[in-house]
Design brief:
Chains A, B: One of its GO terms (molecular function) is aminopeptidase activity. Chains A, B: Keywords: Aminopeptidase, Hydrolase, Protease. Chains A, B: Residues 160-362 form the Peptidase M24 domain. Chains A, B: It comes from Streptomyces alkaliterrae. Chains A, B: InterPro entries: Creatin/AminoP/Spt16_N (IPR029149), Creatinase/aminopeptidase-like (IPR036005), Creatinase_N (IPR000587), Pept_M24 (IPR000994), Peptidase_M24B (IPR050659). The structure is a homodimer of 382-residue chains. In chain A, strands 4-3-2-1-5-6 form a six-stranded mixed sheet. A three-stranded antiparallel sheet of chain A has the order 7-10-11. Chain A has ten helices and 19 strands. The longest helix of chain A has 22 residues, at 155-176. In chain A, helix 4 runs parallel beside helix 5, helix 7 crosses helix 8 (185-198) and helix 9 (261-280) packs antiparallel against helix 10. In chain A, a hairpin with a 3-residue loop joins strand 16 (344-347) and strand 17 (351-354). The first copy, chain A, has two domains: 2-148, 3-Layer(aba) Sandwich (Creatine Amidinohydrolase, Chain A, domain 1); 152-371, Alpha-Beta Complex (Creatine Amidinohydrolase), CATH 3.90.230. The two termini of chain A are 44 Å apart. The first copy, chain A, is of the alpha+beta class. Chain A is 32% helix and 19% strand. The A-B interface holds A 56-58, 60-63, 72, 75-77, 117, 119-128, 141, 186, 190, 193-194, 197, 218-222, 305-309, 346 and B 56-58, 60-63, 72, 75-77, 117, 119-128, 141, 186, 190, 193-194, 197, 218-222, 305-309.
């Protein structure tokens, strides 16, 4: 993997050799180095002088050699030790305390003209500490350069997402075989998270949401002590994180033998909207066109007001990444961009339906959108 | 509770009426309002014009009234709805998108001379958006004013911590009654977290660490698939979060009938260090004196180099709060400050011992330090 990370860092390097980049956002650090110890900072210098600085607070114990790095220093998952021949050098932040300040001082010593920092991640206080630590080094904004690099995934990243989705499907499938009536939302959510880990996930990609009865279909519902009852809608939103990669699934079920007519109608509607969104996915398509495809099905049925601001989003090392599938999203999709498609309708007091899938955008020649979360979307009565 | 929050916000109000405060750090928001929806910001104006702004991303669905707030908008735990007669007004951020920007515009409309923001929490990019949103309003640094307010707890906060500790003791106690040999660190950690929730915790206060054999005693050990073996040291570090309040316990056990001599020796040493730290806790005592009391016991036995930079820290709405118990900590303890005392020693390749307690600093007249985590600190062979 080391070569992959080296190549990613090389894309960040200024060919003119005048600017160095300082990366502090954890998901970006992990993308560029394979690890992200708490508070760490990566300096990408003009000529392959890449150095990952580690916090002394992460280090813990003082050592005779202040620059020495041990396995314990890389306590954040995943552990990653300097490999022989690794271009990346691991260094302690030393006396400055803040790895970003140590990186800025090193950049000043390298004689670069500018240091580009992640202004959307660094706090004002930390930015000021950089200026104080390297007073003659002008700071610029790196912006979301690394996030842009992360948008299109390579096949190794997609393979990790595929495994994350398999784990998620397994955990959800097992739950559906058990008896649900009488169990609480909180216990079902915990059970799902335990099963994710049983099947090899790093952990849940985000807090598992289990919503019953009137709660069903609320996208960010926090599980309560409400118990599953006959006749309920039950909606589940969950996902595994595997090797750092996050996927998402959402499904809605009915509890009991026969769903009511309004439940079948609402389900069919959300299913049609979700299918329209999925089928709109293709390289070159505007993100807002995908959103519109899903949204207009709901609006035509009079449920336009009950839809979220986004009907999908990118996934990867973070669960909510670019692109956004929303009415105001101006960008276009590319091949190998994984996204969720997740319209839903919630009727206050009655409940609702959500259907979320994770898919990878592929050209028609490559078989069209690749569905990662393959749990059935038929309306199951459990 | 509403009056408590009103009083806390009043302490933040500028008596001269010239400065407004903008609070964005989630733990501070929760302290001042009782809730912290994602991305929210609180404006404390000069004359009780308090407004909690909500993110439109949390809000989700567009509504006819853009300023309306529903239960779903307060999706973050705990839910808190505007109460009748509540001085705090709940508002949507509206078109600006960022609640902090909306708050800055309102502050400008109120005619204040300065807006004090949390520079240790706001990112550089968000700070710039505030300046763009309210270009004629000078920004200042609020610093850690709210964190300072949070240092000394009231008895209601301590009661929440006491319940968090009870839950933690119960979960750990149940685990000790079960068979441990052959189970993995990951499964034991999950089991402990499930039990925390069973007993009424909001969730774990921090990721539960279970460390066996050579891992035992590593403070931030991430549980692995290593199985518990006879003769192992087993160290557990965990804590419940209850009504937002976080506690911490750490205990080390031996697996099998008879601990080895080196295990007994190391345990007795860490126990003595931890007791010295606990006994040093009193109002008016320097934080570094508590650290020194624990640290010198370990140093005298030749283990000074294996000790963390901190031997304890404050707890409350965050698991790691001020004060720090470290050699460089200059502040003094006050009554009603809850802290951990948690020295430990790790011997590379062999394992180690950690003993962590959460206590509340009390004067001798009040009975001395109040131990919240009461699980036995005898060396148990399990």
């Amino acid at each position: 993997m080391s070569e992959v990370h080296t190549a990613r860092r090389a894309r960040l390097r200024d060919p003119a050799g005048r600017t160095a980049a300082l990366v502090s956002h954890p998901a970006n650090l992990r993308y560029l180095t394979g690890c992200a110890p708490p508070g760490a900072a990566l300096l990408v210098g003009p000529d392959a002088r890449d150095t990952l600085f580690l916090s002394p607070h992460a280090t813990g114990r003082p050592t005779a050699d202040p620059d020495a790095v041990t396995a314990a220093d890389l306590g954040a998952e995943p552990r990653r030790l300097p490999e022989p021949g690794d271009e990346l050098r691991f260094r302690s932040a030393g006396e400055s305390g803040d790895p970003a300040v140590a990186a800025a001082r090193t950049a000043a010593d390298l004689g670069v003209a500018t240091l580009a920092v992640e202004e959307h991640h660094l706090t004002v206080a930390r930015h000021r500490a950089l200026t104080a630590g390297a007073p003659h080094l002008p700071l610029a904004d790196l912006g979301r350069t690394v996030e842009q690099q992360r948008l299109v995934k390579d096949e190794e990243e997609i393979a990790a997402l595929r495994i994350a989705a398999e784990i998620t499907d397994q955990a959800l499938g097992e739950l559906l075989e058990s008896i649900l009536v009488g169990r609480t939302e909180r216990h079902l959510a915990l059970e799902l998270e335990r099963r994710l880990i049983d099947h090899g996930a790093d952990g849940p990609a985000f807090p598992t949401s289990v919503a019953t009865g009137p709660h069903a279909g609320v996208p960010t519902h926090t599980p309560t002590d409400r118990r599953v009852e006959e006749g309920d809608f039950l909606s589940v939103r969950m996902g595994a994180r595997y090797r750092g990669y996050c996927c998402q699934i959402g499904r809605t079920f009915v509890i009991g033998t026969a769903p009511a007519d309004w439940q079948i109608e609402l389900y069919d509607l959300v299913f049609a909207a979700q299918r329209a969104g999925r089928e709109a996915l293709a390289p070159g398509v505007e993100c807002r066109a995908v959103d519109r495809a899903a949204r207009q099905v709901l609006a035509a049925a009079g449920h336009g007001g009950a839809v979220e601001t986004c009907t999908g989003h990118g996934v990867g090392l973070e669960i909510g990444e670019d692109p956004r599938l929303s009415p105001s999203a101006m960008s276009k999709l590319d091949a190998r961009v994984p996204v969720t498609v997740e319209p839903g309708v919630h009727l206050p007091g009655r409940g609702g339906v959500r259907i979320d899938d994770t898919l990878v955008v592929r050209s028609l020649a490559d078989g069209g959108p690749e569905l990662l979360t393959i749990t059935t979307k038929e309306l199951l009565a459990l």
